[in-house]
Amino acid sequence: MTSTAESLRQRVNRALNSQKPKTITVLSCLLAVEDELGYIPQEAAEEVARFTDSTINDVWGVASFYTNFQFQPPGRHRVEVCWGPTCHVLGAMDAIGEVLKSLDLSGEGTTDDGAISLRYNTCLGACANGPVMSVDHHLIGRITPERAAQIVGELKERQTVGGPGAP
Amino acid sequence: MPPNFEDLRALSIRRWQGLSQGDKPWIRVGTALCGKAAGADRVIAALTSELEQRNVGATISEVGCLGPCYAEPLVDVVTPRGPRVVYGGVTPEQVPEIFDSHIVNGKPVAAYALGTLGDDRSDDIPRLADHPMMKAQHRIALRNAGHVDPCDIRQYIANDGYAALYRALTEMTPDQVREEVSKSGLRGRGGAAFPTGTKWNFLAGAKDPVKYILVNCEEGDPGAFNDKGILESDPHSLIEGVILAGYATGATMGYVFIRHGHDGPIDRTWCAIDQARELGILGQNILGSSFSFDIEVALTGDSYVAGEETALMESIEGKRAMPRYRPPFPAQVGLFGKPSNINNVKTLAYVPQIVLRGSDWFAGIGRERSTGTAILCLSGDLTYTGMAEVPMGMTLRQVVDDLAGGVPGGKKLKLLQTGGPLGGVLSSDDLDIPLDFDAMAQTGAIMGSGGIIAASEESCVVDLTRVLIAFCQYESCGKCFPCRTGMTHLLEVLERICRLEGRSGDLELMRTVGQNMQAGSLCGHGQLGFNPVSSALRYFREEFEQHLRDKTCAAGKCPSPWYSPDGARR
Ligand SMILES: Cc1cc2nc3c(=O)[nH]c(=O)nc-3n(C[C@H](O)[C@H](O)[C@H](O)COP(=O)(O)O)c2cc1C
Ligand code: SF4
Ligand code: FES
Predict the structure, then answer these.
(1) B350 with B376, same domain?
(2) Do A129 and B467 touch (CB under 8 A)?
(3) What CATH number does the domain containing B99 carry?
C-alpha cells in the first residue's frame, strides 16, 4: 500500500469517526467522505463498507444514486450554476453559456488544468435573487452573462498569477 | 433538578429587553441563503471592521430572512433612542456612513432605508409595515424570522418560545394536544394537504415502544425555499413543533431530514437541538416531566424524490431514495420498521402557536377547509421577490399585483408556475383563484410547498415546460419504467418542439405518454409528472401549435441555448 493511499484512508477514517449524528449509515458516511475529499475514491468505498458492515456493492449502489457524488477528484475550485426554472426564466441559460465559453468546457466537468470544476445545480435555494451561481459554496445572486463570465475569469486569473486561490 | 421554566422565561425576557431596548445599538444582518447570495458576508465584514476601528459598543447578530429577499442584504439597526430602521440593498461602501450617522450619532440614513420597524416613527422613512410586501402579511410560522438570532434559544423563549410545550407538558394530555391540532383544521404544507391531526392519530394508535417523527426539509423543488428559510430564521419554532408532535403521538425520537450542502439551515438546526438539550428541553424528562424525546439531523444527498415520504425513510436508513410500496403505511411500518409520522417543516412550525393560542384562533384565519396562512416563495419576474406569509383566501392576483408589486420594467405577466415541478402553470388571465388547497388543485396548478414562479410576456411557455420536464426527468428515481422512460420521452419531444423541429402528432404523443405515467407510476413523481405539460396545454395550447405548425415562437425565444445535465440516474 502506498503512502498516499494510506493518508487517504486516514482522512476517510477521520471523517467517518467524527460524524455528529448517532444514526450512522452508508449514506451518512458517504456524505462525510465527500465533505472531506470532494469525491468518493475506491479506497473510501472500501472503508465505508467496512465501517458500516456492508458490501462494496451496497456502497456503490447508494453512491451512484445521489447525483452529488463524484468519483474523480474535483478541480481546486468548484463553480455551480443553477438551471432551475426560476433562474431559467431570469436568463440562466445565457449565463451558463458564457461560463462554458470562459472555461472552454462543453458541459459539466473539470478544466484540463484541473483548476475549476463546473456543475449544474437544480436549485441553489436563493431563487428570490436569481439567476444564482456559486463559487466554492459562496452564493452569488442576480448574475448576468457578463458578470458570470467575469467571476469565472477572475477565478482563472487567481490560478495563474498565484493569488489566494492558487495551489 | 428540573429546570424552572418560569425562571428561564423571565430571565430570557430581561435579556431580550436589554438587547432590543438597551443602552447599546443592536445591528441585525440577514444571512439566510437570500442574504448570502446578495453579499451579506461582505457587509458583516465591513460592519465588524468599523466596530473594531471605532471601538463602539454595539452588538452584531446574524439573523434569518425577514422576507423581502429582493432587497437583501438587509441591515436592521436599533439604537437606544430613535427608531428601529431596516436598510435594504446595503453595500460595504455604505457601511461607514450608516455607522457614523446612525450607530454613532443616532441619526438614521433615510436614503438607504427600506423602512422602520415596530411602533417607532420617523419623518423621512416609511414604516416597513406599510410596504406592499409586508402589509398583507399575517406572520405565524414566520413571526420571529429576521427578528431573533436563530442561534440563541433565549431570544426564542423571550418571544413566547417553548411556552406551548410547557403548557402541553404541564396542563394537557397527548389526546388533548392532538384534539387541538385536529380542530385547528391544520393541513400538511408539504404538498398533499393531508389533515395533520388525523395523521397524528394514526401514529398515536400504533402500539410500539419506539416511534418516530420525521421532518421533511428535503425541499428539492426549485423555486421553494421557505422550509430552509424557517430553519435558518427560527429553527426553535420547528424543534418545539417536533417535540409537541412527539408528545402528542407517544413518539420517542425525531429526525430533521435536510439536503446536505445547505450549511446555513443544517448548522442552525443542529445549534437549536444542542441548545434545547442543554436547557433540558430535549432529552430525558423534558422540563422535569416524565416525557423523554430526542432529535437529530439526518442529511440526504441530492435527490428530489428523497422528499417523497417513503423514499425519505429509505434515505435516512442510508439507502437509495426509492419510494416503497404502500401498504404498509408509515404509521404502521416506517423508519427502521417502526411506526413513523412524516410532516413538512412549515406544518410543524405552526403547531406551537396553535397549542398556545388555541385551535379556534387558527381556524379563524384563512378559509373554511384551508385554515391558517400560506407561506409563499415569490420568485421570477416580480418586483418584490422573497418569502411571505399571508392568510389563505388571498387571490393569486392580489399576490402578484399587491404583495409582489407586479412585473418589473412595465412588462406584462404571462403566467405563474405554482407548487413546484409537479405543479402546473396558470395563465395571467386566470388569477382570481384564492390561495386554497382545493380551489388551486381544481385549476391543475397546486399549492404544493408554496412556490410561485412568475414569468413575463417575454418568456416562452414551451421553453419553460421543457425545463420543468428536464428537472422531472433528471430526478426520476428509475424504479418504475413508465416514469423513467416516460419523462425521457417527454423531454425528447419538448426539446425538438423548442428547436422548432416538432412533428405533427407530438402533442397527442405526449398525452399518451403522460397517461401511461399517471396510470403506471408508484409515487407522485410519475403520477403528477405530466402536470407541467397538461397545465401548459390547457392554457397555452395555441403556442405549442405555433411552434409545431408555423415553426415560430411568439415570444421570440425558441430556438434558444439549452444546457442540461446528463439525464439518467447512474
Ligand atoms: C416526488 C416527491 C417529492 C416530495 N418532496 C417533498 C419535500 O421536499 N418536502 C415535503 O415536505 N414534502 C415532499 N413531498 C410530499 C411528502 O411525500 C409528504 O406528503 C409530506 O412531507 C407530508 O408532510 P405534510 O403532511 O406536513 O404535508 C414530496 C412528494 C413527492 C411525490
Ligand atoms: S414514479 Fe418515478 S420517482 Fe416515483 S418511484 Fe416510480 S420511477 Fe421513482
Ligand atoms: S431556481 Fe435557481 S436558485 Fe432556485
Answers:
(1) no
(2) no
(3) 3.40.30.10
Is the minimum CB–CB distance between B303 and chain A shorter than 8 Å?
A: yes
pTM of this structure: 0.96
Q: What pLDDT, in 10s, does the model give residues A5-59?
A: 669 999 999 999 999 999 999 999 999 999 999 999 999 999 999 999 999 999 9
Domain holding B374, by residue range, is 369-456
Given pLDDT bands bounded at 50, 70 and 90, which one contains residue B564?
Answer: confident
CB of B343 closer than 8 Å to CB of B199: yes
Using only C-alpha atoms, what is the Rg of chain B? 24
Per-residue buried b or exposed e for A22-61, using 16+ beta carbons within 10 Å of the residue's own CB? ebebbbbbbbbbbebbeebbebbbebbbebbebeeebbbe
The answer as to whether B43 is a domain residue is yes
User: Within a domain: residue B60?
Assistant: yes
Among B202, B309, B527, B530, say which to mutate for ligand 1: greatest number of ligand atoms within 8 Å of CB: B309
Do B333 and B414 sit in the same domain of this protein?
A: no
Tell whether B481 is covered by a domain. Answer: yes
Cα torsion B268, B270, B274, B280 to 10°: value is 90
Query: Is B327 in the same domain as B425?
Result: no
- Give yes or no for residue B359 having a pLDDT over 60: yes
Question: B331 CB under 6 A from ligand 2?
Answer: no
Classify B363 in phi/psi space as left (phi over 0), alpha (psi -120 to 50) or beta.
Answer: alpha
pLDDT score at B190: 95
3-class secondary structure per residue, B394-411: CEHHHHHHHHCCCCHHHC
Q: Ligand 2 mean position to A63 CA, how many Å? A: 18
B565/A108 Cα distance (integer angstroms): 7
Quote the CA–CA distance of A118 and A91 in Å, as a whole number: 18
Question: Which amino acid does the sequence have at B430?
Answer: D
Are B121 and B173 in a shared domain?
no
Ligand 2 lined by B306 (C-beta under 6 Å): no
Cβ contacts of B376 within 8 Å, gap of 6 or more: B226, B387, B388, B389, B390, B399, B403, B435, B450, B451, B452
Residue B382 sits in the same domain as residue B506:
no
User: B39 by DSSP, 3-state: which?
Assistant: coil
How are beta strands B212-217 and B340-344 bridged, if at all? parallel
| Interface confidence (ipTM) of the complex | 0.95
Which residues are paired to B299 by β-bridges?
B258
Residues of B in contact with A100 (CB under 8 A): 563
Host H or E run for residue B271: helix B263-278
Do B328 and B401 have their domain in common?
Answer: no
Q: Across the interface, which of B377, B459, B566 has its CB nearest the CB of A127?
A: B377
Chain B positions in Cβ-Cβ contact with residue A45 (cut-off 8 Å): none
Q: What is the pLDDT of residues B173-229, one digit of tens each?
A: 999 999 999 999 999 999 999 999 999 999 999 999 999 999 999 999 999 999 999
Specify the ligand 1 atom closest to the Cα of B307.
5
- If asked whether residues B358 and B374 sit together in one domain, one would say no
Nearest CA of chain B to the CA of A2: how many Å? 30
- For residues B338 and B404, membership in a common domain is answered with no
Gap from CA of A33 to ligand 1 centroid (Å): 28
Q: How many domains does the structure of chain B reveal? A: 4
Please tell me the distance between residue B484's alpha carbon and the centre of ligand 1 in angstroms: 20
Ligand 3 pocket, residues with Cβ under 6 angstroms = A 82, 84-87, 123-127, 130, 132; B 222-223
